[in-house]
Every structure is written in C-alpha cells, then in structure tokens.
Amino acid sequence: MKRVSFYILLFSIAFALFFIGPPLLSQQCGLYPLMKTGDVVDVLTPLILIPLYWLLYRANENKGLSWKGILVFLVLAAFWVEGQGMHLSANSIGHLLKAMKGSEVYSLTYFYDEVLSHYLWHFGIVGLSALLIFQQWRGGSGEKAPLMWIILLAAIVHGFTFFVIVIEAGTAPLGVSFAVIAAVFGLVWGRQKLGSQPVLLFFFVSYLLAVVLFAGWGIYWGGLPQFSELGII
Question: 179, exposed or middle or buried, with CB in 10 Å at 0-12, 13-18, 19+?
Fold first, then answer.
C-alpha cells in the first residue's frame, strides 16, 4: 500500500469536510439548543486535522526530525488551533447578537469572528503547508512510486476547499499570495522532484488549482467578493 498517498487523500477529505461541513449544519443542537450542530462538529476539527498534518510531516522517512522542526510545527499548529477555536466560539456567539448590531459587544465579537480568527487560522494553514512543502523538498518520503491518481484527486479537493475558505473568510491578501508562491516554488524549484515526492506534488497541484480559481473568480467578478456577499450562501 502506498501509505503516504492514502494519508494525503485522507487529509484532503477531512480538510474539506471540516472546513465546508460545519457552516452547512445550521440546525440547532438537540442537546444544547444555543449551539448549532455545525458548532458541535467543529469542536472535532483540530482534533482530526492536526494529527493528519503531523502524519504528513512525518512522511519524510529519510531524515529524522530535528527539535527545531518540531518546534516550528508546534508554533504553527498553535496558530491554527487558536484561530479555529476563536472562530468557533465567536461565530457561535455572534449568531445570538444579530439584534445588537452597532453595539460594542457585537463589534468586538465580529472582529474576533471575521477578522482576527480568520487570519490566525489561515496563517496556521499556509504556515503548515509551507513547512510540509519544505520538509518534503529537502528530503523525501521514501515512496518511489506514489499513486498519482489519488494524489491528484486529493489535490483537487484541497485546492478547491482552500479557494472557498479564503474567498469566504476574506483572507485573500494572505491566501492568494501564498498560493501563488507555492505554485511558483513547485514549478521552478520542485518540478524535478514532483514524481517521487507525493506531498510536494499534492501541494503544488492544489495551490496551482487555487491560483487558477482565484484568477477566474477575480476576472469574472472584477474582484474577490465573498460568496455570502453575492448571496450564493
């Protein structure tokens, strides 16, 4: 079994489900009606995804992990978890404050929900992606013949999901810039290694797709409006 390829597919599916799924589960939670079902599901998000990030990080079997590498992973994971947790709580509380628009408590909750949490969270996302790309580029997974169709499928899922969350979160300055950098890095410096390093190939195709989607969205709308601003969701 090409285990790294399957780790990548599992990661991309979980990434899509836990980022896109909770906002769609808008019914009230039966056990605690003040929460929505999506809020309950979202509690599991870092518990599932951070270990999957770690599995991909450990995919490099040719070199051991240094304490510096582990420390960088932990710091980036902390950004990821802090942003996700802040967004979960502020977003859930914000649903109850719609009648208080214009108040200080609404403004502060909105800032935590729509601005600070998004940038902390997405910084963790792109930071961990950058770390995994660098780790794979400098070493390798030991998987000489990765299952290309699985990696390409996973990359399509992840790239589309990344496009969706960056657009809806309003973090285009961060997300679009990183997608361009990651795609250029893979094309210029990583192209000779793409065939044997599945994590590198995965992120290259994923972010290349995201760049294409960002460009198409921007050209069509004359900017990068959120889906909610257009009434799509």
Answer: buried
Residue 1 has pLDDT above 50, yes or no: no
126 vs 63, 91, 145, 187, CA distance in Å? Answer: 23, 22, 27, 18
Q: CA-CA distance, 60 to 79, in Å (whole number)?
A: 23
φ and ψ of 28, to 5 deg:
-70, 145
Length of the chain as a residue count: 233
In the chain, the amino acid numbered 175 is G
More confident residue, 192 or 168: 168
63/32 Cα distance (integer angstroms)? 47
* 191, HSE (Cβ side, Cα atoms, 13 Å): 5
Which residues is 36 bridged to in the sheet?
28
Q: pLDDT tens across 12-39, in order?
A: 999 999 999 998 888 888 888 889 999 9
Could you tell me if 81 and 46 are in contact, meaning their C-beta atoms sit under 8 angstroms apart?
A: yes
CA distances from 92 to 23, 86, 125 (A): 11, 10, 22
Distance CA 213, CA 174 (A): 15
Q: Is the dihedral of CA 2, 179, 176, 57 positive or negative?
A: positive
Residue 105, CB-side half-sphere exposure with 13 Å CA sphere: 8
Give the list of residues 6+ apart from residue 132 with CB closer than 8 angstroms, or none: 53, 56, 57, 199, 203
Q: What is the mean pLDDT of residues 152-175?
A: 97
Whole-number Å distance between alpha carbons of 126 and 124:
6
Find the Cα–Cα–Cα–Cα dihedral 116, 224, 231, 112, rounded to 10°: 0
